[in-house]
Amino acid sequence: MAINKKTNGWWTPARVALTIVVFGMLAAFGISSCSSGDERRTNPAAPPSTVSNGTRPAAPRSAAPVTTLPANVTQAELKALTGDPIKLGSYSGKVLLVNLWATWCGPCRLETPELVKLHKEFRSQGVEMVGLSTEDFESSKDSVRDFVRNYNIDYRIGWSGNDVAATLMQGRDAIPQSFVISRDGRVVKRFVGFNPSETPDLIRAALEEALNAKTTSD
């Protein structure tokens, strides 16, 4: 009996509270971002990641940070959900937010409504947004179309393709990723993952910084 009382008494209120906090933190970190490997674990039949043709990218530590969008990104003609192909270079002279995402990514689903709100808030100031799915174009057309309709997305949506996604991610294949680009093509801020209590305000601040920044020709 003494042994049973000692065992049952281990779960004190303080220990129960600590356990809840720890699991809550683990859950929060778990939904902050996804990787290309997550898709294959969730859906074994899913096509290889469009980031690297199924090969996990190298660790990002040795990659130099992207400070401006390179030519292979700005000049690429990317498939769009509707209308003409998306060409990021056509947004030169405007503040642009580029978001890499996927329909199967939980954190992307959490982030999308916030991006819709930010687009409504800033589009009158000339801010443009482009969402680029990292999924395979042929196999994800229907799911991307449904996603756009369900989340009432009013900014342009397309597919990143292998080369553009790999260049922007630089080996760090976590999504969502967002890039706030200034009018002269400078990457003002890069965001990897999504924290609902922090990321929207940080993106808002980055957009304001980009809007207020002087271009190199000023």
Find the structural class using helix and strand composition.
alpha/beta
Number of helical stretches of at least 4 residues: 8
Radius of gyration: 20 Å
Strand content: 5-15%
Helix content: 40-55%
Spans where pLDDT lies below 50 across 5 or more residues: 25-31, 40-64
Largest sheet: 5 strands, mixed
Average pLDDT over all residues: 80
**What pattern of helices and strands is seen along the backbone?**
HHHHEHEHEHEEH
Strand order of the largest sheet: 3-2-1-4-5
Distance between the termini: 82 Å
**CA-based shape:** globular
Tell me what the structure shows.
With 218 residues, this protein is of the alpha/beta class. It contains eight helices and five strands. The protein has helices spanning 2-8, 13-30, 36-42, 71-74, 106-122, 137-150, 161-169, 199-212, and strands at 96-101, 128-133, 156-159, 177-181, 187-192. A five-stranded mixed beta sheet has the order 3-2-1-4-5, with helices on both faces. The relative contact order is 0.18.
Can you lay out the helices and strands and say which pair or pack?
Layout lengths: L1 H7 L4 H18 L5 H7 L28 H4 L21 E6 L4 H17 L5 E6 L3 H14 L5 E4 L1 H9 L7 E5 L5 E6 L6 H14 L6
